[in-house]
Amino acid sequence: MLEIEGRYNVTPRWIALAFIGAGRDWGRDASFRDRPTVVSKGVGFRYVIARRLGLAVGIDIAKGPEDNAFYIQMGNAWR
After folding, report:
1. In whole angstroms, what is the distance from residue 38 CA to residue 22 CA?
2. Of the candidates 8, 77, 66, 11, the residue with the CA atom closest to the CA atom of residue 39
């Protein structure tokens, strides 16, 4: 699995972002090389509600190989 995210600070409190991720699975019945790579991508925005803590809330819209997704986010996986 690999994921990349780019962020752009529109203002000190508003952030626009885009992301893309790819991954494969494997197991007893299939080797890593035999499995297809699955790609997902999306865009979103964040509003920083606590600058000292780096706490932000926002919305992401993502597209995967089979479906679309809508996420409401609070907090960050990393700073």
Report:
1. 5
2. 66
Cα-based distances in Å from 25 to 12, 18, 39, 77: 39, 24, 12, 23
Mean pLDDT (whole number) for 52-56: 86
Instruction: Count other Cβ atoms within 10 Å, centred on residue 62.
Output: 17
DSSP-derived secondary structure letter, 27: -
pLDDT surpasses 70 at 78? no
Site of tokens 């019945």: 29
pLDDT tens per residue, range 1-32: 899 999 999 999 999 999 999 998 888 888 88
